[in-house]
């Protein structure tokens, strides 16, 4: 045997001088074959798609939807307006780029402390769930009761309590291993988590169902809701911030988001009020001190007048005061300034005030000093905002700390310079005033003492009035403080759920309905042990396929007659035609049929092959040579008491061995006879060889129904007398592994001119053929099969 490859995926095999071709497995993707397989199992795809859509509907029916809640606020960002063109160019080039005020505010909104404040205000660490038959759904506010907790421990473990309203007066509370009893409304329970109080909500109807109250720690609730919150800046050219929160209950999401915005805005107002509070506290302290000093001076004047019996010193000192009035007024102004400067200097030098706001309303007329205080307070507020979402080791915070240290040094330097100037002015005024004092030495000592008292009273009174004025200004400033943000859109939920997406779920259900049968068909092909399609044959054996015979429901042993026009009859006629290309020589007339195992249809094929050959006018002999398990005589209803086995032992003469088969006048039969104890030895006798020589001379075709070659050696012994071998493979019955037998027989030429016949091919079962011949009839015998039979064929059972 010689093999040649023709380059087109086919192998040419020279067997006994006859060049036969068989196709190698085609590894390329065949779209048409795939479509045929899908269409042949369309009902599975249809059922799975319908089931996928039904499952999608069921999932959407009981799935918990997630809604998106959106809000928008506007931040007062000075960095996004009124800048010079040069600064805009630098920002576009991202030179000296730093986070804008909007970026900082966004970090504050995302901060943990702000969310913790919201969780505590709304008690979001306590959730309520209503038990249903298929799922437990979360409830919010519209409940017949509310649970109030007090003295909750910090490291609170997760806990669940089942609350069931019993009546208008009673409620049942239970938790495994903790509590299980009825209590009255508004009663308190001491539980491991804290003190629990169940309050009746009279505005909601009493529903006697099981409610689950879940309690978690504040830290865990903060983490959960921070993960649900998304904060982003839609455009770097604007100063708006978009807030989005996902929630299974739209109303709950709206309330949480609005509360978060209110908490943020209140935090902004509190930061601004801290400056005013710092100024008011400083002024109050100074007022208390100055008030005591002023009261002391006034008391000294009263004592002085009482001790010296003075009534009106105005006229007495009129001329003196007129002379020294201008100097006294100037000296008083300078002394007031000096007192303010000294107070500020003491305030700044105090180590406890290093991280506090410097009172801005007490600054003097020096514009440079006013500018430094404004920058200093601005940096202090910026530092506090950054610390809400960053640590002190953050590079931006450390940079601000360095700027604060530098500005504090500038403040001290300016105060020192300003104080020195004031002291110089006071010294000069005192020097000039001293010159005038020499001129009034004749003034009585009492009047001079009284004048000193009056001067001290004027200074203290001026300072007292100055402080009162600044306190009122700070109070007015505090009352007019507003948040640094404005609400553009209040929290509002979207009309439709964000998750799950209905269209996507239905699409996934349909895709799943396509994938499941596809995977099933693939696994059937991969895992099936039996021959299902043509590829299973071509991948396991190089033997060519001569013909394919379809499935038939006919019970008769012979389905071929002169007038038969069924698809199976036409297939047998096609087999008869194909045999002409195998048996090319007139002397080649013996056809042997075998298979891997019993039950693959050898008797059916042999009987009908003999019938179709005899219909062509040829004299055909059908030999029942399966001496171990004969079936031909039984199928034809003939007596099998005599046959080959009785002839081989000399009990039946040759003229009685061959008898009519009853199929038609041109078809004869040699039955097997009684089952012998040594079938193989009978086939090896010389008389068997002589029998075949005699039969070749009297018949045009000899069809041998041999036993399975995979079980016994009888078929190979009979192969020495045959001119061609037809090896049967039955769809859904023959094991793939058994095709290795045919491969070995074909490659090593153990059987003459071996070709395959595929038997019992079912249309629409994945073999790859649909039998229709265009004569007004088609092969549809399997379309009415039950589902159970389809499943058995599908999985090769």
Chain-wise SSE layout:
Blueprint: E1 2-5, E2 10-15, E3 18-23, H1 31-40, H2 42-62, E4 67-75, H3 85-92, H4 101-109, H5 112-122, E5 126-131, E6 136-139, E7 145-150, E8 159-165, E9 170-175, E10 179-184, E11 188-191, E12 194-200, E13 211-215, H6 218-228, E14 229-232, E15 240-247, H7 250-308, H8 318-349, H9 367-387, H10 395-439, H11 445-479, E16 485-493, H12 502-527, H13 534-538, E17 545-550, H14 567-582, E18 590-595, H15 602-614, E19 620-624, H16 632-636, H17 644-648, H18 654-657, E20 659-660, E21 667-670, H19 679-683, H20 686-698, E22 701-705, H21 714-719, E23 724-730, H22 739-747, E24 754-761, H23 787-794
Parallel strand pairs: 17-24, 18-22, 18-23, 19-21, 19-22, 23-24
Antiparallel strand pairs: 1-2, 2-3, 4-15, 4-16, 5-6, 5-13, 7-12, 8-9, 8-13, 9-10, 11-12, 14-15, 20-21
Helix pairs in contact: 2-12, 5-6, 5-7, 7-11, 8-10, 8-11, 9-10, 14-15
How would you explain this protein's 3D organization?
The protein is α+β, with helices and mostly antiparallel strands and 797 residues long. The chain folds into three domains: 196 residues, no CATH class; 222 residues, no CATH class; 267 residues, 3-Layer(aba) Sandwich (Rossmann fold). Helices cover 47% and strands 18% of the residues. The chain has 23 helices and 24 strands. An eight-stranded mixed sheet has the order 17-24-23-18-22-19-21-20, with helices on both faces. α5 crosses α6, α8 crosses α11 and α14 packs across α15. The chain is rod-shaped, with a radius of gyration of 55 Å. It starts with a strand and ends with a helix. It catalyses: L-tyrosyl-[protein] + ATP = O-phospho-L-tyrosyl-[protein] + ADP + H(+). Belongs to the etk/wzc family. Belongs to the CpsD/CapB family. It is an enzyme of class 2 (transferase).
